Amino acid sequence: MVRAATIAAVVSPPDEDDALVRRVAQGDTEAFRVLVERYQDRIYGFTLRLLGDAAEAEDVAQDVFVTLYRHAEGFRGDAQVSTWLYRIAKNHALNRIKYLDRRGRNTKTALHLLRDEPEDGGRRPDQLHEERETLRHVQAALETLDEDFRLVVILRDLEGLSYEEIAEVTGLPRGTVKSRIHRGRTALAQRLERLMS
């Protein structure tokens, strides 16, 4: 999993990403490789948080990049490449959830790694244990949110997208995005309070 500092390091200028997508549309496999390397951890992390299953998330993340390769010519450039990829990932993940639900498989298994495991950093073992327990509670509470709320909370609070970017990813008006984030956070806080009391 990529840490926030690492994510910041791999974020590239939008013009550079746009040029890479145009090259992919012309069949440039090197440009495709660069985009995959640049975004694979972020897309995998996002799909993992939505699906809660590492194997399913890996499959969906691969599908996202297959879609990028096959439909690069459809990228109009009216959104950032990262936002476009999140939108593709969201659509694939929600379709996979529906597919698995129809098959009777519960995809809300343990939700993995909202963030990396806390590092020692000189803290006492009891402090690290408490942090890990809190993380497990957050994971469990996030699993219980409705898909619509879980999606926007993950995009905002864990992926760091702006309201505008989330609106582009989800196709929702900005006001609806803000409302769902607020309602999702409120529901999450209530569930956390119950879990931790």
Folded structure, characterized:
By secondary structure, the protein is an all-alpha fold. 73% of the residues lie in helices and 0% in strands. The model is unreliable at 1-10 and 106-118 (pLDDT under 50).
Task: Give the SSE map.
Blueprint: H1 4-10, H2 14-25, H3 29-51, H4 54-71, H5 81-102, H6 125-143, H7 147-158, H8 163-170, H9 174-196
Task: Supply database-style keywords.
disordered N terminus, single chain, mainly alpha
Strand content: under 5%
Radius of gyration: 18 Å
End-to-end gap: 30 Å
The largest sheet is:
none
Order of helices and strands: HHHHHHHHH
Q: Count of DSSP helices?
A: 9
Low confidence ranges? 1-10, 106-118
Question: Tally of extended strands?
Answer: 0
Condensed summary:
The chain has 197 residues and is mainly α. The chain has 9 helices and no strands.
